[in-house]
Write a structure and sequence with these properties.
Layout: H1 3-9, H2 11-30, H3 35-73, H4 90-144, H5 151-173, E1 183-186, H6 187-197, H7 199-204, E2 207-212, E3 217-220, H8 222-239, E4 246-255, E5 258-265, H9 285-290, H10 298-309, E6 312-318, E7 322-330
Parallel strand pairs: 2-4
Antiparallel strand pairs: 1-3, 4-5, 5-7, 6-7
Helix pairs in contact: 2-3, 4-5, 5-10, 6-8, 8-10
Length: 338
């Protein structure tokens, strides 16, 4: 709260005081009051006006300075009311009361919005669980009738199952921490399960899967890691170039104070300008304009999960040559027991 701006705001009142003093002084002159009395009156009046202004300024200075200072320091501005003491002057009480009502209204609206979102997420989660039952039945039917049902139908059912899983994991991702079970996980077993899930699409696409040096253990949640690896492999299958020898290579290596799991394909690649953005929600980039099947959600979900699990997602790529997606695990013993 700047004194100069405060005085500027009070100019009308100060002008009224000055006018009153001048009028009274002239009135005293008209009644032939002694000069010493008139001077004494002016001095007392000036001291009174300055005292009133100083008192009013100092009383408001603490509250408004605290308000402005805390607003500058807070990242979450809506918490400002919790940092302030209720002022003892009328204007401050009005401001404080208004902020209290605004904060209360905002809190109620946010609560309603959160309840609405949570109810919608619950509905989606129930719906996905329900839809997975007929999908599982379709998978079984395709498996039992392979001599009658073309493989392309089985492939599309598998894609439906993968997309249903993606929706389910996305809905759960915000509260996934409650479901984490950290333990030493063998990368070879995780990749084996992922390869089994995608074997039909790999065979149908005539894609060679080259897995080596993956008999390593890392501390992570095996279920969520399997989901992430499956998403990356699915992306590789989706964007691999059908006109060349198609290869997906998976390996692990020591990096600094941790281990990195690499999943590299020789597909269409990602433009350099898109790489910093591919983990943004719904970002599809240049490839998304060429391929309508791109949703822009896969890498967004994987990046979020990596952050929550304490891992790091790295992506390097060159257009028409390769894309290398790696998950870096730190040497973290905090979840080990005994």
């Amino acid at each position: 709260m700047k004194f100069g701006l405060y005085i500027k705001d009070k100019l009308g009142i100060i002008a009224g005081y000055v006018g009153f003093v001048i009028f009274t002084y002239l009135l005293m002159m008209a009644f032939h009051s002694q000069l010493q009395m008139r001077i004494m009156f002016v001095v007392v009046a000036v001291i009174f006006v300055v005292s009133v202004i100083a008192f009013d300024y100092l009383r408001k200075y603490k509250f408004y300075n605290s308000l402005v200072g805390h607003l500058d320091e807070l990242d979450q501005k809506y918490l400002i009311l919790d940092t302030l003491d209720e002022p003892d002057f009328y204007e401050g009480k009005l401001v404080y009361s208004a902020m209290y009502d605004i904060n209360k209204s905002m809190t109620e609206n946010v609560r309603k919005y959160r309840d609405s979102v949570e109810n919608f997420k619950d509905f989606i989660e129930i719906w996905v669980h329900e839809i997975k039952l007929p999908i599982a039945s379709l998978v079984l039917m395709c498996h039992n009738n392979r001599d009658v049902i073309p493989r392309k139908y089985e492939e599309q059912v598998a894609r439906l199952d993968a997309y249903a899983d993606q929706v389910l994991y996305y809905v759960r991702a915000e509260h996934a921490a409650a479901d984490y079970r950290f333990a030493e996980t063998n990368l070879k077993s995780v990749i084996g399960r992922v390869a089994l899930k995608n074997k039909d699409m790999l065979l149908d696409g005539d894609i060679s899967l080259n897995v080596h040096d993956v008999d390593e253990c890392v501390v992570t949640d095996s279920k969520w890691l399997e989901f992430m690896v499956n998403q990356i492999v699915s992306n590789s299958i989706k964007y691999i170039d059908r006109g060349q020898e198609k290869t997906i290579e998976i390996w692990a290596e020591e990096v600094g104070d941790g281990k990195a799991l690499h999943i590299k394909d020789n597909g269409i690649g990602i433009p350099q300008s898109d790489i910093p953005l591919v983990c943004r929600k719904s970002f599809t980039g240049e490839n998304g304009r060429k391929y309508a099947k791109s949703t822009g959600m896969g890498l967004y979900i994987i990046d979020n999960l990596c952050r929550q699990l304490g891992h790091k997602l790295n992506i390097t790529s060159k257009v028409e040559e390769y894309t290398d997606v790696s998950i870096v695990f730190g040497h973290n013993d905090i979840y080990k027991i005994g």
